[in-house]
Amino acid sequence: MSKQILIVAGDGIGPEVMGQVERIIDWYNTNRGLDAVVENDLVGGCCYEAHGVAVTDATIQKALDADAVMLGAVGGPQWDGVDFAVRPEAGLLRLRKDLELFANLRPAMCFPALADASSLKRELVEGLDIMIVRELTGGVYFGEPRGIEDLPNGERRGINTQVYDTYEIRRVAKVGFDMARKRGGRLMSVEKCNVMESGLLWKEEVIKLHGEGNGDVKLEHMLADNCAMQLVKNPKQFDVIVTDNLFGDILSDIAAMLTGSLGMLPSASLGAPDANGKVRAMYEPVHGSAPDIAGQGLANPIATILSFAMLLRYSFDLGADADLLEKAVETVLADGLRTGDIMQDGMKQVGTVEMGDAVLTALKTLSA
Ligand code: IPM
Ligand code: MG
Questions:
Q1: Is 92 near ligand 1, meaning CB less than 6 Å away?
Q2: CB–CB of 245/209 below 8 Å?
């Protein structure tokens, strides 16, 4: 049976970068027997314009039924004044929540050709390979109560709640342990147990789980502020980091810059396997909709292309096809092609479509 991929390209540069992935899917269908059928739909500001909400119930149902979802980016300044409940980001958050995608994998790898594109010194980032496992369906992003209240004294109060139940901590920590086991065998659990009860519970539960059959993984703990500092001081000390939703959001942006550009970082968001062993999943670049360069053909499609490589690996179990695509990206970078965000002296600057062309050419060459 064909594999169903739902693509929601979203706003800003989303459609441009996703356009390159659609070409790559076609290539895999024709040349590697992928047999994937793509359906496109609206999420984000584009959906708000069409339907008055950031995602419709019908699209959520399609996402639940699909074998995998790919998302481009959502948001833009034109929707800044829109109510939180229907603004573009709400569409993304609802997809994550309704599909129960609690484990967000954000690998930060520095391609050798890009070691000089990072704002950090080459020796700090060369060969970098870390994995951030971010909790994605809990914490302050979804905690109740939330809102803005009028107080009797004429002041206003903004409220969000950081809340974690044990099952939420345990299931994402388990992903962290499993991931560490497949990689360098080390897990860093990150929270703020010095000031937050939710952080203390996080740490206690991770330690408990370590004692329940995960002792082969070397577990350490770090406060989130220190982790931010350590990521720019000595990033290669980390193997796998597991952390909550908000800290993961922030730390993964830091990690992204170590690789040269936010335009390089892919992500996979995974749920728990259902009774048939199917794992719900959504793949998206870590970068946003970049309204400043949208529609100009300048955006770097590599984060989205690498997100599709993660889709091949995690949703379709096609590790060799994922390796091939990652290798193609590496080849293109080694050949000196660069979009504006990773441009360096002596390299050739190209646009979104030319970068897509180059990856397709490399795929052909590498698989010949
Ligand atoms: C991310 C983004 C989102 C988040 C926004 C767009 C809601 O920053 O995926 O990292 O905060 O999770
Ligand atoms: Mg973010």
A1: yes
A2: no
Contacting residues for 11 by C-beta, under 8 A, at least 6 apart? 44, 45, 46, 72, 73, 74, 75, 76, 88, 289, 291, 294
pLDDT in the model for residue 117: 86
Q: Looking at 11, 28, 48, 141, which residue is catalytic?
A: 141
Q: Which atom of ligand 1 is nearest to the CA of 104?
A: 9
pLDDT tens sequence across 129-175:
999 999 999 999 999 999 999 999 999 999 999 999 999 999 999 99
How long is the chain?
368
Q: In the chain, where does DSSP find H-type helix?
A: 14-31, 45-51, 57-65, 88-98, 122-125, 166-182, 197-211, 224-233, 245-258, 302-314, 319-334, 352-367
Residue nearest to ligand 1 atom 10, measured at CA: 249
Q: For the domain covering 1-102+265-368, report its CATH number.
A: 3.40.718.10
Query: Is-contact 59 43, C-beta < 8 A?
Result: yes
| Matching fold, domains 1-102+265-368 and 129-258 | yes
Q: What is the pLDDT of residues 4-29, one digit of tens each?
A: 999 999 999 999 999 999 999 999 99
Q: Which residue's CA is the closest to the ligand 1 atom numbered 9?
A: 286
Specify the residue for token string 């569409």.
91
- d(CA 249, ligand 1 centre) in Å: 7
- Specify the pLDDT at position 273: 87
Instruction: State whether the beta carbon of 249 lies less than 6 angstroms from ligand 1.
Output: yes
Domain boundaries, the chain: 1-102+265-368, 129-258
pLDDT given at position 11: 98
Mean pLDDT of the chain: 96
CATH of domain 129-258: 3.40.718.10
Check pocket membership of 101 for ligand 1, CB cut-off 6 A: no
d(CA 254, CA 102): 21
